[in-house]
Amino acid sequence: MSKQVQKGGENSTNIQAEEVNVVQGLTYAEVRQVATDVFKANFYDLAGEAKTIAESRASQITEDFLAKLQAENPDGFSKAQDPDFQHALFTVQKEHARSGDEDLGSLLVDLLVDRSKQNQRDILQIVLNESLSIAPKLTKEHLAALAVAFLFRYTQNFGIGNHESLGQYLDAHCAPFAENIPKNQASYQHLQFSGCGAISMGSVNLENILGQTYQGLFLKGFDPEEITKREVSIGTDQNFFIPCLNDPEKLQVRANSKEILEKNMEQLNVPEEDRPKILALFNLGKMNEGKIKEKCIEIRPYMAQVFDAWSSSDLKSFMLTSVGIAIGHANIKRLVGEFANLSIWIN
After folding, report:
1. Parent domain of 154
2. Are 166 and 293 found together in one domain?
3. Residues 6 or more apart from 129 whose CB is under 8 A from it?
4. Same domain, 89 and 179
5. How far is the C-alpha of 293 from the C-alpha of 205, rounded, in Å?
6. CA pair distance 288, 346, nearest whole angstrom
7. Residue 331's closest CA among 163, 86, 139?
8. pLDDT tens sequence across 31-54
9. How far is residue 129's CA from residue 87's CA, in Å, rounded to a whole number?
10. Please, is 98 exposed, middle or buried when counting C-beta atoms within 10 Å of its C-beta (0-12, 13-18, 19+)?
11. pTM of the model
12. Contacts of 18 (CB under 8 A, 6+ apart)
């Protein structure tokens, strides 16, 4: 076993155990040096060009991480003195040094930045640590499946109010994965083996999910007389009734989902006797699943690929674990930049 020679500057503490160098009072340059030392001390020796390539990749992923950390969570620099975080950092360096895959590297950086925000050992920290180890075992097809499953099964964008904004949302969050969603059973068996999810007995159509999450975009509308006929005391209040998005000659309830509608009625103190009547109008003229699919494809033709992949694979039956959610979340976040905090889903 070779000996190590460690030199400590001011405000530093050197620890020989497990080849970890812990530094206090950290600057950007000092954290970079710690990261470099962690990699060199722990990565196995390679020969010839392979060694040069590995060191170059590790250096690049370290720079990418530090730049993103400085932009998103500069307080995270203090984590460089935490042994568990150093282990997470080395996992990222090691896996990128081995593969050199840029998309995987970007994903790992996002996961590591999220990991830097955790100040105590809780479920989220444990999940992120595990995700850093699992993600390198997945292909871009696996990662696409996790992103799409997470997007449609576990999220709702409250800012979507019309077909144009839905299309823009799909462009940013779904289109990048449309061509890579796997259909073969082996892909979902591997995701299940990796601890990212489970293939359940039941299934749900993507049309059904979209029809519930964004129901307000898929209504046929009703005649204005319905409001009078049903004796809705608030009348055609614009807080709750707008021209139908799919037929301007008719009206529809102004809400994307039942949950949002109920919340709005509560906040605006809608009379109790009106609430079930407005809910009934919200469900009046709902498009069937076939029409919902047609409308989505009309808005964005590439959605035909997504519907096909969903319906013809185990994706329709795949429920994500906490690790699958974390990886799916990070895979979307690396493309769109900003996304809701992971703690919403894992807490």
Report:
1. 140-213+289-344
2. yes
3. 84, 87, 88, 115
4. no
5. 10
6. 33
7. 139
8. 888 888 888 877 877 778 898 898
9. 9
10. middle
11. 0.84
12. 83
